[in-house]
Request: fold
Amino acid sequence: LGAMQFMPFVITIAAVLALDLLKGVLIGIVVGTIFVLHQNSKDVVSVTREGNLVRIRFRRDGTFLCRPGLVAALEQARAGESVEIDATGEFIDQDVKEAIAAFREDAAHRGIRVEVKGVEVGTASGAAH
Reply:
């Protein structure tokens, strides 16, 4: 499936040959976990622009891993625009809710209209931005 899928195996084999079986397998588990976390943090949100409307749609569950990408997408909004955040059908964890709440709070001061669908952020604290 490509180099990103093959690398954990190569690293595991190299670690087994260089060290021993147990240490090599443990290194392989750690490297595999890092690769999985990295892959799961990418492409969670899609951003589309239609005139003065910025649509941000969650493609899968919003965990702490996607927070940096979400914050970067939200920072692209300019004064006078509208931002629609749609998380319908997806699990959104507290950290991401706090990022959305912080953006919504800041957007009011910047003249940005925000609509949130599919997730309740009213109870999230906006202080974590």
Summary: Residues 21-41 form the longest helix (21 residues).
